[in-house]
């Protein structure tokens, strides 16, 4: 960066290359994006939330709350199920110097602009599989399983709140008690599953409404 802080790092891990984009800070700089030559890449919002996530099958674009804005599949990917979802060009600005443009699996560019000069890094890759059986196992659940998980967590939240009411009859006391850490963790995991599972946006909204009620 013009400040002298390191902006981009390219490292080799065994047979893979990894490109890392950092924020403009001298110490403890957060990672804003990671691009791997095996086809797996992730971009992050300034708060650390996942912005764009890509693999050898396709990718998805999320908002800062973790809700999926859109998703796509690569034109040449072999999908075990589901229709092909074409990619519309994606451009995001990680900060005032760094941008990412996605036009295809092998057409992903990191642009660095500073002091009137520009540098571009092609971090796209052409990764294919010859057999559907070689695809990584899906990380999503079915609609029924996701709803059951959401209701289970919601019931546990209610039981915890009920215990708080019994132990602290005064509303001013039990209402301020934070839920157990494991319930917060399970809620975040379910919300993350909403973004990685191949389910409708309507169902995602229903699950979020259940766990956040």
Could you provide a short overview of the structure?
26% of the residues lie in helices and 30% in strands.
How would you describe this protein?
- The chain is α+β, with helices and mostly antiparallel strands and about 210 residues long.
- The model is unreliable at about 130-140 (pLDDT under 50).
- The longest helix has 25 residues, at about 145-165.
- It has helices at about 145-165, 170-175, 180-195, 200-210, and strands spanning about 10-15, 15-20, 30-35, 40-45, 50-55, 60, 70-75, 90-95, 100-105, 105-115, 115-120.
Characteristics:
alpha+beta; seven-stranded antiparallel sheet; four-stranded antiparallel sheet
List the helices and strands and how they pair.
Blueprint: E1 8-13, E2 16-22, E3 31-36, E4 41-44, E5 50-54, E6 58-62, E7 68-73, E8 90-93, E9 98-104, E10 107-114, E11 117-122, H1 143-167, H2 171-174, H3 181-196, H4 201-211
Antiparallel strand pairs: 1-2, 2-3, 3-4, 4-5, 5-6, 6-7, 8-9, 9-10, 10-11
State the share of residues found in helices, binned by percent: 25-40%
Reading the helices and strands in chain order gives EEEEEEEEEEEHHHH
Total number of strands: 11
List low-pLDDT spans. Answer: 130-140
Computed over alpha carbons, the radius of gyration is 21 Å
Distance between the termini: 44 Å
The SS-based structural class is: alpha+beta
Mean pLDDT: 81
Number of contiguous helices: 4
How does the overall form come out from the CA principal axes? globular
Instruction: Describe the oligomeric state of these chains in a short phrase.
Output: single chain
Strands in their spatial order, largest beta sheet? 1-2-3-4-5-6-7
> Main beta sheet, described?
7 strands, antiparallel
> Strand portion, in percent?
25-35%
